[in-house]
Amino acid sequence: MSTDQQSTGETGDGRTILLIGSGPIQIGQAAEFDYSGAQACRALQEEGARVVLVNSNPATIMTDPEMADEVYIEPITTEAIAEIIRKERPDGVIAGLGGQTGLNVTAELAEEGVLEQYGVEIMGTPLDTIYATEDRDLFRQRMEKIGQPVPASTTISLEEDESVSELTEDDLEERVQAAVDEVGGLPVIARTTYTLGGSGSGVVHEFDELLARVRKGLRLSRNSEVLITESISGWVEYEYEVMRDADDSCIIICNMENIDPMGIHTGESTVVTPSQIVPDEGHQEMRTAALDVIRELGIQGGCNIQFAWRDDGTPGGEYRVVEVNPRVSRSSALASKATGYPIARVTAKVALGKRLHEIENEITGETTAAFEPAIDYVVTKVPRWPKDKFEDVDFELTTAMKSTGEAMAIGRTFEESMLKALRSSEYEPSVDWADVSDDELEETYLERPSPDRPYALFEAFERGYTVDEVVELTGIFEWYTERFKRIAESTRAAQEGDFTEAAIAGHTNATIAATAGADVDAVEQEVPGRTYKQVDTCAGEFEAETPYYYSSRKNEFESGPLVGDAASGELEVDRDLESVIVVGGGPIRIGQGVEFDYCSVHAVQALRDMGIDAHVVNNNPETVSTDYDTSDGLFFEPITAEEVADVAEATGADGVMVQFGGQTSVNIGEPLQDEIDRRGLKCEVMGTSVEAMDLAEDRDRFNALMDDLGIAQPEGGAAHSKEEAMQLAHEIGYPVLVRPSYVLGGRAMEVVYDDEELERYIEEAVRVSPDKPILVDDFLADAIELDVDAVSDGEDVLIGGVMEHVETAGVHSGDSACMIPPRSLDDETLARVREVTEDIAEALETVGLLNVQLAVRDGEVYVLEANPRSSRTVPFISKATDVPIAKIAAKVMAGNTLEELEIEEQIPEQTSIKEVVLPFDRLPGSDPRLGPEMKSTGEVMGSADSFGKAYDKAQDATGKPIPDSGTAIIDLSADKFPDPDTEDGDALVDGFTEYFDLCEEVDLAQAVREGKVDLIVSRDRDLLEVAVEEEITYFSTPASAKAALEALEAKDEPIDVQAVSDRPKQTAEWGRSD
Amino acid sequence: MTQAYVALEGGHVIEGRGRAPGTARGELVFTTAYTGYEESLTDPSYEEQILTFSYPLIGNYGVREERFEDDRVHPRAALAKEFTADVAEWLESEGVPAVDHLDTREIVTDIRDEGAMKCGIAVGEDVTEEDALEQLEACKGMSEHTDIGAQVSVDEETVYGADNDGADVALVDCGAKGSIVDSLVARDATVHVLPYDAAADDVAAIDPDILFISNGPGDPANYEQAIGLVQEFVEDTPVAGICLGQQIVAEALGGSTEKMTFGHRGVNQPVLDLESGQVVMTTQNHGYTVAEPGDHLEVTQINVNDDTPEGLDGVVHDVITRQYHPEANPGPEDTLDFFDDVLAMADERASTAVPADD
User: Fold this and answer.
1) pLDDT given for residue B289 in this prediction
2) What are phi and psi for residue A1059, nearest 5 degrees?
3) Which of A197, A230, A263 is the last residue of a domain?
4) Bond prior to A821 in cis (omega within 30° of 0)
5) Are residues A246 and A362 in the same domain?
6) A597 appears as a binding residue in the annotation
7) Which residues bind Mg(2+) 4 (chain A) (predicted)?
8) Based on the domain organization, do B197 and B323 belong to the same domain?
9) ipTM value > 0.90
10) What pLDDT is recorded for position A269?
């Protein structure tokens, strides 16, 4: 007997498949689609298909030239993709791998007839299915047809000839009331169809609020529809990840249980896999329902089905089918990492016609994809919110997503898993519990779900609240609440000198030592050590070969640290082999996005190229770096010095690289060095020394170094008190740029223009980081800002590229559009830029990457900052120049010299623009103006012969295209804009009036609300908030407005769609005009 | 302070936390299901075994009798990383020792590498490692439990669904799970549950439309009477079997069985139907398997992981059997239609039966 039946379906042989990515990282659509896309590319190529990939996001691994046969970094618009289809003539397109963006654009391409015209087949899940899941009415009909219960719902929609602005209040009220009655009264959930991550949806308790939401929803919805559903808040929310092949074999990959009750978006919830509190019968009922649903919808590949469930006293409880996502998703990435089952890979192969039992399970090597993973651990996912970046935004958790990323952890108990996840999220509640009364604790932190709630639970138990009380206040289920209490009790025990319970609960030795005021050596001797277990998809039933591990403490019958082989647990390592640990970047947040995952993955690839075993420590389930086949050892762990040192102990690694994972990895450099020394490990922190990294961040020492090197800096210094700051500001002269030292992404950076503003600022900044000084610098208004990324081996320096910012000083470099190559520098200045970079590289004894931020004014080059580590521009530069500087950096850190590597600098002949994507539409109440604080979540790239066209393409790619006609508001009233009477001001107004009628309305905001405005140039916060709500393209700085004008002038130039490696480059050295 | 020790074949003793006192011995096996602990612990097929849960947290949704498969707990002892108080109290009240705070993953991989093994357990105030080793010493192999059927079977015929209009099923109870009876009764059958050692006359007295051999613990070779019943009735009566039932049918009709290294226990076993090409997920709990089906049976379904027979059809006789548990509980409901197929054999028999007055 044999299972080796011949496949009846076709495989990929010779066929060309178009894969559409998901574009920039934004709230609701993060790095998960880089992971799924990268996995799909590999899977399709394995099957012999020729893969053409398009994505606008240069910071991704999937857009690396070697990932597909042709890689296009182009806007995900029908215009650009139609052009790619004309050039590449794909046989099929797989739409279900690029998130909502990929699905929507595929649907549009079909609707426009492009797919039919070029004979492009939609592979995997059919379009009808996509419509059936997105249109809730259709969905309900299909579910009713197969007898599946759904929450009562109805839609409020506009007739074709109706417009929302003409709808009278009475008319609207009547329709809304009828809808509310139909679903059984308030509260209800109001939702707009076809939106990402549930934007604009929420549980509504008040009728007036509902009216306002419906009005807005009708305006924004693509099909003028708002859905009103029965609120099932308080039920338990489940997700089932389902897979189906063409022969109708269906399996469940896993289920996921949300700790937070129904009513909070699953992307905002703390989620546990597998389910803990549903009995087998209830689980099997939902499992069967999930299979019935995927069959009814005819989905081929992966799919996510959401349920609401409650214990109604029957053996299996009661459930509702809430939603279906007929594609890979954030949840499927989580499920893949949680179980080891590669959903995107299998989805891609199923789309080509393979059957599940014909696809190998790579993890075991013994079994196939036709099985349901068995889990013998507990997985917890915790979202990460940008709360620290948006003081004006209410971060109450609702049905709309506000988190930018997530961390996942694996443990043998929920407590261990939860504590590891919280640690991995690197989130600190900005609340001093001592100042919080019981009333406030209950109302603000327990009843109201927020990013701080898990910590509030610990605090409540610390104060003696009972489990029942906390269940009552939070609605969190008793089983979980009890375990939060156990954690709190273990912390208390540690304070009293009993460390074991706290260690087993999942605290680090370092935390326990700090809590108890004990010495870490003493704690370590007393508690059980950590060892590693394998994630194997089968709970140990089969021997697995894939090196995917998590740590867990031993039981209480053992104590003391584990060393050598004992620390390795199930690891299969040859300790004699040369191996290096690459520390990843943790959850995606503003200021630290997918670009650092890109850098980490490149470091791993470089090491493996050199024959060195590369291990990854990271905890972000969305990423490529945490794919089990990226590295030689994947350690899904929190990033702390102790836990990374444990990995070093267990693997016998020779070195650790902390340059690639952004601030997360850089921050552990120093404590990790100390921990390695404390334990006497034979392991080094590689590349530029921890000492040099510290020097670069220490303002005073860095100043002195620049003075020695004769490199200009904006006048400034560090102030430790308000008086010092005032004095400095006066010496320098206003305006000055102020910021706290040691912060990420320009947090709390501001330009202040007088004493009063400075005073107000200091009160906030000191609150942000009390024991660190603030930096006061001359604000170089109107200077050109530059970013340079380079690699040094300690001798030679290779310049990856020089980028010029579109924005001038005053806008955070991470939020500024930028261009490569620069267009405003003469040869002499560029030569000086090179010289400055080389001097700094040498002075910091840089081995590895170096990012230098410079400003140029009146021919003088000033250095603003130098960071001897990876920067967020590394992937963009690498894509634009085809010089993979992260890989080169890893190689020189591992001992190669630049000379040996024989790599030449490349200067692109075209212009590439990196533009940012901003989250204001997701965060109501946020200030939508660009400023010194970084707020963007992701980036896109646009390339063309001219700056204007490249900028235009980049805007298209952000999803906020520049309209070429219509009505515009050109409001130059803000200080930052040139006066309308000046020549510059005139030029701006005249420029736009060539394309647009100027808006004549008195109430501009109202005009925007009524859909009468197509483009806005302004810095009026209120007006821009309306623009954000209404999704109107706007520009809030003179620089971006001018760039937009250039884009308008270039509108008629050809779109110039080209594979990224075909774009012309010149082999030449930056700043050397031979 | 309660001590708890688990002694493994070979003499290695592991310390754990005692959750229910007592001493026990049995064959150490594991299940990979993460739900369904109540169903597993009341599954008669675990008789004379010590059940290790590979999922670390057991007991999360309490203990409710309506989810039981039988009226008592069958494994001799239970091991987990962590039992809830509910489960610990239940096991204590049933007199079944329980140990947790164990590295169950290590135990599972030991079983995987060494095979299902003998095990001794001692839990109590003053127990020692020696007490566990003593239990280990006294532990017998599964095949040595020759009269294991008597421990798990009904003593006399019991009828379920007496008022139903459908087929009469003679279910030979070698340790049947309650859900098998429920699945048949729900399809309008009258189920006559007979002792594992029922005589041919007992069966003939019922004149059943189906002879159904249930699941159960231990070596199929120890169920001689049931093997005899199949041989006696297969010419005239359609025969069905689940799990041990499939093995007994194979033994009866010229096939052979063998002991597996550590068996299949879990709710995620993939089974390929050779005719349709479809794969379904099944619940399994067996340590023996059909080695050769013999000339009278053909293999219709196989395990995707190791190709062992999962479904047999009679070549000439009306016989269908499953190695897995179509009745689920715990586990997926993908294969409930097996019971429809079984009962269809009864209908067919009725429609083709020669009139009695001939």
Assistant:
1) 98
2) -60, 145
3) A230
4) yes
5) yes
6) no
7) 865, 867
8) yes
9) yes
10) 95
- Would the pLDDT of A166 be above 80? no
Answer whether residue B282 is part of any domain: yes
Cite the DSSP H helix spans in chain B.
37-41, 85-93, 104-114, 129-138, 148-152, 178-185, 200-206, 224-233, 244-252, 337-352
Look at residue A753 and tell me whether its pLDDT is greater than 70: yes
Residue A197 assigned ligand-binding role: yes
Nearest-angstrom CA–CA distance, A189 and A690: 52
Do A651 and A613 reside in the same domain of the chain?
Answer: yes
How, if at all, do strands A153-157 and A121-123 pair? unpaired
Rounded mean pLDDT, B37-53 = 98
Active-site pick, B48, B243, B251, B317: B243
Domain-terminating residue out of B115, B140, B165: B140
Return the pLDDT at A217.
82
Query: A240 to each of A99, A130, A259, B320, B350, how far by Cα in Å?
Result: 17, 18, 15, 33, 43
Domain extent for A81 = 16-123
Question: Do residues A680 and A735 share a domain?
Answer: no
What global pTM score does this model have? 0.93
Looking at the fold, whether B122 and B219 belong to one and the same domain comes out as no
Residue A768's pLDDT is what?
A: 46
Asked if residue A884 lies in contact with residue A604, where contact means CB atoms within 8 angstroms, the answer is no
Cβ contacts of A258 within 8 Å, gap of 6 or more: A236, A237, A238, A239, A264, A266, A269, A270, A271, A272
Q: Where are the strands (E) in A178-287, listed by range?
A: 188-192, 202-204, 225-230, 236-244, 250-258, 271-273
Domain shared by A914 and A817, yes or no: yes
How many domains does chain B divide into?
Answer: 2
Q: How many other β-carbons are positioned within 10 Å of the β-carbon of residue A712? A: 16
- pLDDT of A127 reads 83
Looking at the fold, whether B233 and B325 belong to one and the same domain comes out as: yes
In contact, A569 and A529? CB cutoff 8 Å: no
User: pLDDT over 90 for what percent of chain A?
Assistant: 75
Task: Kindly name the residue from B9, B27, B310, B327 that is annotated as catalytic.
Answer: B327
* CA–CA dist A1066, A1071 (Å, integer): 13
For residue A1022, what is the domain's CATH number?
3.40.50.10190
**pLDDT tier for residue A199 given thresholds of 50, 70 and 90:** low
- What integer pLDDT is reported at residue A200 of this predicted model? 61
**CATH number, domain containing residue A731:** 3.30.1490.20
Q: DSSP alpha helices (H): ranges in A583-698?
A: 594-609, 641-651, 662-667, 669-679, 690-697
Assess whether B198 and B331 both reside in one domain: yes
pLDDT tens for B169-225 read: 999 999 999 999 999 999 999 999 999 999 999 999 999 999 999 999 999 999 999
For residue B108, what is the domain's CATH number? 3.50.30.20
**A375 to chain B: which residues are within 8 Å by CB?**
34, 55
Same domain membership, residue B53 and residue B159: no
pLDDT tens digit sequence for B219-258 = 999 999 999 999 999 999 999 999 999 999 999 999 999 9
Contact residues on chain A for B307, CB-CB shorter than 8 A: 1-3
Average pLDDT, chain A: 92
Q: Which domain holds residue B300?
A: 148-352
Q: Do residues B131 and B157 both lie within one domain? A: no
Residues of chain B positioned with their CB less than 8 A from the CB of A412? 56, 81, 105
Q: Is B161 helix (H, G, I), strand (E, B) or coil?
A: coil
As a whole number of angstroms, the distance between CA B137 and CA A629 comes to 45
Q: Looking at residue B210, which CATH number applies to its domain? A: 3.40.50.880
B108/A274 CB distance under 8 A:
no
Angle at B35 between CA B33 and CA B39, to 5 degrees: 90
Check whether A220 has a pLDDT greater than 80: no
A734 three-class SS: coil
Nearest residue, CB atoms, A376 vs list B54, B304, B334: B54
Query: In total, how many domains does chain A have?
Result: 7
Residue B103 has pLDDT above 90, yes or no: yes
> Nearest CB to B277: which of A5, A413, A556?
A5
Q: Which of A1, A412, A556 is nearest residue B56 as measured by Cβ atoms? A: A412
